[in-house]
Amino acid sequence: MAMAAARHILLKTKEEAEKIKQQLAKGEDFSKLAKKHSLCKSSAKQGGDLGEFPPGRMLKAFDNVVFKKPLLKVHGPVKTKFGFHLIETIYRR
Prior knowledge:
Layout: E1 4-11, H1 14-25, H2 30-37, H3 41-44, E2 49-53, H4 60-68, E3 74-80, E4 83-92
């Protein structure tokens, strides 16, 4: 079975997500920004780390990034019913 590990930062608005994405592009630490800004409190404590999961566990828009986009790049903002995500896939196997 395919598996992936990813981390994310969940934000309320697309504008907030774009602002954080710019900070990441300038070299700011993903983990620190997730802890400070992410609305997903359970993963924010882990620096945005969602651990390992199979396809279908997350929402379709989220899975499309994790299982199809290049690794180790920040993708998004990706809109879901929870808000706007910045997503980085750590690995797929």
